Amino acid sequence: MLEKILQTKREELKEIQLGQQEDVQKISFYQALQNKARPVSLIAEVKKASPSKGLIKESFNPVQIAKQYVKGGANALSVLTDETYFKGHHTYLTNIKKEVSIPVLRKDFIIDSLQVEQSARIGADAILLIGEAMSPEKLYELYLQAKELHLDCLVEVHSREVLQGILTIFTPEIIGINNRNLHTFQTKLQQTEEISQFVPKESLMVSESGIFTYKDVQTVKKAGANAILVGESLMRQEDQTTAIYDLFGEEVYEN
Ligand SMILES: O=P(O)(O)OC[C@@H](O)[C@@H](O)c1c[nH]c2ccccc12
Questions:
Q1: Does residue 210 line the site of ligand 1, with CB under 6 A?
Q2: CATH code of the domain containing 167
Q3: Which is a Pfam family this sequence falls into (predicted)?
Q4: Which of 24, 139, 212, 250 has the most CB atoms at less than 10 Å from its CB?
């Protein structure tokens, strides 16, 4: 599946249009994740659909969802911009960025410097770089380019081998462990437990995918995660603010 997606991205690259620089202020994704109001920080994902789950949210208003996440105290947002497989769009990110004051991560399959440039222009504060999608050398090249454009990077890995390959080249500030198996699409939180011991102490560690309950939050917290990236379980609920409180086992009385 990843190979198929990357093939589509290579095709799209031939017709990529960079567009104008959006007039927005960049803010630090890294710093937002350091905020310790909860046991782990939350990156809440605006996600309409996925290849494995199909359509996740029927009535989808990206800006409204983003605002509900902010109200629930999310530290940062992740916005899917891939159109073909996740039914996302780069305008979702731009529109959200203009309406919120927390940092926004561009969730896409970035494999080329043009996409990094484009991410900066559409108003992203951070980008995702997937270890399994390119060589560690290429990843480092894009990481450095992103830094120059004041974009933080979430460096995602699915396996210990790929993480270790990256660490021979450099130490990313933020490392994401994806709990989703790239071949079977199944998620298991054990992935975080197994790989976390190889994450350097100086990196912020994010556990991604398959987090549904407060128990799941505690499991990855115990494994050393500083932050979590959650999409589906929050998107499936009616109200995304309440969804966040539920995820953290919080009781909130509104008056
Ligand atoms: O919806 P979930 O299971 O909570 O997962 C969110 C996020 O981790 C997932 O969307 C994701 C992780 N890495 C990606 C790379 C591309 C697209 C999507 C992803």
A1: yes
A2: 3.20.20.70
A3: IGPS
A4: 139
Q: For residue 85, what pLDDT is reported?
A: 96
Q: How confident is the model at residue 185, as a pLDDT?
A: 84
Q: Would you say residue 221 lies in a domain? A: yes
Residue 231: give the domain boundaries.
40-247
ipTM: 0.98
What percentage of the chain has pLDDT greater than the value 90? Answer: 93
Residue 129 lies in a domain: yes
Unique residue bearing structure tokens 């995660």: 225
| Alpha carbon distances (Å) from 209 to 70, 114, 220, 252 | 20, 27, 11, 25
Rounded distance between C-alpha atoms, residue 215 and residue 193, angstroms:
14
CA of 50 to the centre of ligand 1 (A): 9
Residue minimizing CA distance to atom 7 of ligand 1: 209
Among 50, 78, 240, say which to mutate for ligand 1: greatest number of ligand atoms within 8 Å of CB. 50
Could you identify the atom of ligand 1 that is nearest to the CA of residue 45?
6
Phi (first) and psi of residue 221, to 5 degrees:
-60, -45
Comparing CA positions, the residue from 161, 159, 210 lying closest to residue 189 is 210
Give the Å distance between the CA of 208 and the centre of ligand 1: 6
Cα Dmax for the chain: 54
Number of domains in the chain: 1
In-domain check, residue 32: no
Q: How far is the CA of 229 from the centre of ligand 1 (A)?
A: 7
Instruction: Look at residue 153 in the predicted model and tell me its pLDDT.
Output: 98
Instruction: State whether the beta carbon of 231 lies less than 6 angstroms from ligand 1.
Output: yes
